[in-house]
């Protein structure tokens, strides 16, 4: 009986209690099936018998499984990355036990949310296996929550994070907004510049790499205090921000403004006599040249600007250094103070304040990865209102409303059903969704399209190819909003854990599995990621594979890319050219369908880091790479609606400054790129051919 029970648990079954019927029932968290009788292995589940060889013939024929019936389960070859395939690995299977307790819904197979009263159905008596109904079926699905994990970890203790609460999340949002305003004011008052775009968001990312504080968003315990990321970005905009130049007059104006700002800064700061002399002489010489020469080209102005930066830059940076360090230090100190204030308020809301517990020794038992669990029980949460506006779900708490499209709201419900174990009746679901959406809204910022690059995701065909060809079943950098698999690592374990997160990747230690990594483009985070990759690959003898997607920045090259290219674990590297591939928008949970994808304005490097066992199992063979490359090609159905920054929005008068770049980045129906001179030549040839054909016809007649 113990072996049968073990197999049932591995197949996703759990014995639950029905309050409505006052009797036990059996629930499968993988397929959402509910049965009154004891399940029979191979008859009711697809985990222990994926091919259905031992299954009794179903009376109702085939049916969709899992994910609310949105997708049919794929073939066993496509599911080779699931737990079943791991049985062929070297890990002792007697140690592989899923230490989680599946949730038990108040009504087996019922749906907690309805779009309209008339859609409510009476729950059917669960006597035959059937897929659970869903409240809303999206027209397009950007995820596959049926895929099971092949990621194996060592069992870990529950986390000590404070459970999320809407009151605290609202205060955190207000304090982060206030901190952003302080940063803006300090840059204006001390340096006379606007803060570099999204530099605050990158500061949050860079600080959390080394932060040892308690708050999930606000840094409070970092060493060093001065952020290299914020310091570097502010210094790059001193004395003025250098924008992208398109026209000759813009180049002339920018050169004059730089010379004037450098001279003004050196006069108003405590500079050495030598620095003052060098900067003033170069600035005055530049202004004199601008007054004399009115026939210079755009390239002449740009060369002069580069020379001026080389001569004045070091002296300007020297006088601005203390002031910029003061900005970084002040923002960090305010963040630490806000974090301390928030924690005190948060602790006062808890029924059982945390106590200092003795650290128990780490567990050595191997298990399939499971979502983050919290040590502290969640207190009663206040009511959050829900209503629908067209295709958007709107959640309101104390006048603060957050929105998510109905497709992603349905996705969050499924993730919550799969992952949450402390809320079987979904009583805290809306409060936790509000906290989740508010957290990511605050992290993104309030500017137009701000922060969406932090959450950009790979296209669905690429994920499908990664899973089918390389056994990928896990995302190292994702969120409940943009994840493709239901197992992923994310930034906020305290709230994301209820929706399937395994915690931050830098504290996640897999022993085996195949992983996809598409990190936010923050240099410090990417560098820490490479260090973690090499440490994991070096200490595991089980199959372990990381397929990494990073921007191919070469001028200057990023340290993370250089390290991966020189790593002894690098098995293959491929490059996807700029404008020939796309990403899913980071705001996919609120954007319109036509804005879901955007062209990448830079090349993407794809690197395969694998240990020996991982290379033997998921090695990048030519056939696998060919399918991955084909999956990266943008779909023709989306090509007309893709938005692309850069050359796609160049004014007609400036086409000469974009020689060699296509006016539209996607392939034309004629098989060439719509470059204007080429297109004119093509039309000219067509006209001559038609004219020749007409003449020939008339002569013949």
From TrEMBL:
Pfam families: PCIF1_WW, WW. It is found in: Nucleus. Keywords: Methyltransferase, Nucleus, Transferase. Signal peptide: none annotated. One of its GO terms (molecular function) is mRNA (2'-O-methyladenosine-N6-)-methyltransferase activity. Its EC number is 2.1.1.62. GO terms for cellular component: nucleus. Belongs to the CAPAM family. This is mRNA (2'-O-methyladenosine-N(6)-)-methyltransferase. It comes from Sphaeramia orbicularis.
């Amino acid at each position: 009986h113990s072996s049968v029970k073990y197999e049932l648990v591995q197949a996703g079954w759990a014995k639950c209690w029905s309050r409505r019927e006052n009797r036990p029932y059996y629930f499968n968290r993988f397929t959402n099936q509910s049965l009154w009788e004891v399940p029979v292995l191979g008859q009711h589940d697809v985990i222990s018998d994926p091919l259905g060889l031992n299954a009794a013939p179903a009376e109702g024929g085939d049916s969709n499984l899992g994910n609310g019936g949105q997708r049919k389960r794929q073939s066993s070859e496509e599911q080779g990355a699931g737990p079943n395939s791991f049985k062929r690995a070297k890990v002792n299977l007697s140690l592989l036990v899923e230490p989680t307790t599946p949730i038990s819904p108040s009504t087996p197979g019922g749906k907690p949310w309805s779009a309209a009263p008339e859609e409510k159905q009476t729950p059917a008596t669960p006597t035959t296996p059937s897929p659970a109904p869903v409240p809303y079926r999206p027209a397009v699905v950007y995820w596959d929550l049926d895929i099971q994990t092949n990621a194996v970890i060592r069992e870990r203790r529950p986390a000590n994070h404070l459970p999320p609460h809407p009151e605290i999340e609202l205060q955190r949002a207000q304090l982060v907004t206030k901190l952003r305003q302080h940063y803006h004011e300090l840059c204006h008052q001390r340096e006379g510049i606007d803060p570099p775009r999204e530099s605050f968001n990158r500061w949050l990312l860079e600080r959390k790499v080394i932060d040892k504080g308690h708050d999930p968003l606000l840094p409070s315990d970092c060493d060093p205090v001065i952020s290299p990321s914020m310091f570097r970005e502010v210094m790059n905009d001193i004395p003025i921000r250098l924008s992208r130049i398109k026209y000759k007059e813009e180049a002339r104006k920018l050169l004059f403004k730089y010379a004037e700002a450098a001279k003004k800064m050196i006069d108003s700061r405590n500079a050495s006599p030598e620095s003052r002399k060098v900067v003033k002489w170069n600035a005055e010489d530049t202004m004199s040249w601008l007054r004399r020469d009115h026939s210079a080209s755009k390239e002449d102005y740009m060369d002069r600007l580069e020379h001026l930066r080389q001569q004045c830059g070091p002296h300007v940076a020297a006088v601005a250094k203390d002031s910029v360090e003061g900005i970084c230090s002040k923002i960090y100190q305010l963040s630490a103070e806000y974090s301390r204030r928030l924690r005190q308020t948060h602790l006062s809301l808890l029924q059982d304040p945390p106590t200092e517990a003795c650290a128990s020794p780490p567990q050595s038992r191997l298990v399939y990865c499971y979502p983050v669990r919290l040590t502290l029980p969640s207190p009663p949460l206040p009511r959050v209102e829900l209503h629908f506006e067209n295709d958007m779900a709107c959640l309101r708490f104390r006048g603060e409303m957050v929105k998510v499209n109905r497709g992603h709201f349905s996705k969050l419900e499924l993730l919550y059903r799969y992952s949450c174990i402390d809320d079987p009746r979904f009583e805290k679901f809306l409060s936790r969704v509000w906290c989740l959406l508010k957290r990511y809204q605050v992290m993104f910022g309030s500017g137009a399209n701000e922060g969406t690059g932090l959450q950009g995701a790979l296209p669905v065909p690429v994920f499908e190819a990664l899973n089918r060809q390389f056994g990928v079943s896990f995302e190292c950098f994702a969120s409940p909003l943009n994840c493709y698999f239901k197992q992923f690592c994310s930034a906020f374990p305290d709230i994301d854990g209820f929706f399937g997160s395994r915690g931050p990747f830098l504290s996640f230690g897999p022993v085996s599995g195949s992983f996809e990594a598409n990190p936010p483009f923050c240099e410090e985070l990417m560098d820490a990621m490479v260090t973690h990759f090499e440490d994991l690959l070096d200490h595991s003898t089980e199959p372990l594979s990381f397929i990494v997607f990073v921007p191919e920045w070469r001028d200057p090259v990023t340290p993370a890319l250089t390290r991966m290219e020189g790593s002894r674990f690098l098995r293959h590297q491929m490059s996807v050219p700029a404008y020939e591939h796309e990403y899913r928008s980071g705001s996919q949970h609120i954007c319109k369908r036509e804005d879901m994808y955007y062209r990448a304005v830079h090349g993407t490097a794809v690197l395969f880091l694998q240990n020996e066992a991982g290379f033997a199992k998921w090695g990048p063979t030519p056939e696998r790479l060919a399918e991955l490359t084909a999956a990266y090609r943008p779909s023709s159905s989306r090509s007309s609606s893709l938005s692309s920054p850069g050359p796609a929005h160049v004014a007609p008068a400036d086409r000469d400054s974009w020689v060699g770049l296509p006016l539209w980045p996607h392939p034309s129906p004629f098989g060439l790129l719509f470059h204007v001179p080429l297109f004119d030549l093509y039309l000219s040839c067509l006209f001559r051919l038609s004219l020749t054909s007409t003449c020939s016809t008339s002569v013949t007649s």
